């Protein structure tokens, strides 16, 4: 059981990356984030799923931190990938754009890339109160700063999608591939 929890905490090995372990580990969350968009139109279910993943991340990260004896050990990336779906709650139905009967793969890839970058920027910036919550003990400190970072990223992603990606970037990219 110990190995399973540590494997999950270390992002199935992605957290062991020697550089940018948080960003590398966050990639593990992309399938979860894309999957949550399959519930497009069911906002309350998306919120419940994101909340359950957040609550599950706390004891996983807590256990891994106690095991390593290092405060917010860089190898622990469950907080990055398990909370990434928060950034996709109520957003584009990326799942259907990738796997639906009428796929829009370019739009999906652009959105996923934009959302991922914005979420990472907010995680790195650690705006208030995320910067203070990081000091909380154990799994709470590891997870709460990411929770706030992703909550801050969510409206930014929506705004960038609505006012930059869809009206400006998507038409330009579609012309390149037309």
Task: Describe the protein.
This protein starts with a helix and ends with a helix. α1 crosses α4, α4 crosses α9 and α7 packs antiparallel against α9. The chain has 178 residues and is an all-alpha fold. The mean pLDDT is 93. It has one domain. Helix content is 70%, strand content 0%. It is elongated. The chain contains 9 helices and no strands.
Summary, kept brief:
The chain has 9 helices and no strands.
Specify the number of helices.
Answer: 9
- Overall, the morphology is elongated
Q: Biggest sheet: strands, sense, closure?
A: none
Distance between the first and last residues' Cα: 51 Å
Strand content: under 5%
Count of individual beta strands: 0
Taken in chain order, the helices and strands follow as: HHHHHHHHH
Structural class: mainly alpha
List keywords for this structure.
178 residues; mainly alpha; 9 helices; 0% strand; single chain
Secondary-structure topology with pairs:
Blueprint: H1 2-9, H2 21-26, H3 30-36, H4 43-68, H5 78-83, H6 94-99, H7 105-125, H8 130-133, H9 138-177
């Amino acid at each position: 059981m110990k190995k399973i929890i540590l494997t999950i905490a270390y992002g199935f090995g992605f957290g062991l990356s020697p550089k940018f372990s948080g960003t590398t580990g966050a990639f593990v969350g992309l399938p979860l984030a894309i999957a949550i968009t399959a519930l497009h139109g069911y906002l309350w279910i998306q919120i419940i799923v994101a909340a359950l993943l957040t609550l599950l991340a706390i004891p996983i990260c807590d256990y891994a931190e106690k095991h390593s004896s290092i405060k917010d050990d860089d190898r622990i990336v469950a907080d990055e990938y398990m909370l990434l779906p928060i950034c996709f709650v109520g957003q584009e139905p990326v799942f259907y754009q990738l796997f639906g009967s009428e796929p829009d793969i370019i739009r999906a890839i652009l959105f996923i890339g934009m959302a991922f970058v914005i979420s990472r920027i907010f995680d790195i910036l650690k705006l208030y109160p995320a910067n203070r919550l990081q000091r909380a003990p154990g799994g709470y400190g590891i997870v709460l700063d990411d929770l706030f970072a992703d909550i801050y990223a969510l409206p930014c992603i929506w705004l960038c999608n609505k006012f930059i990606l869809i009206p400006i970037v998507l038409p330009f990219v579609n012309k390149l591939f037309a």
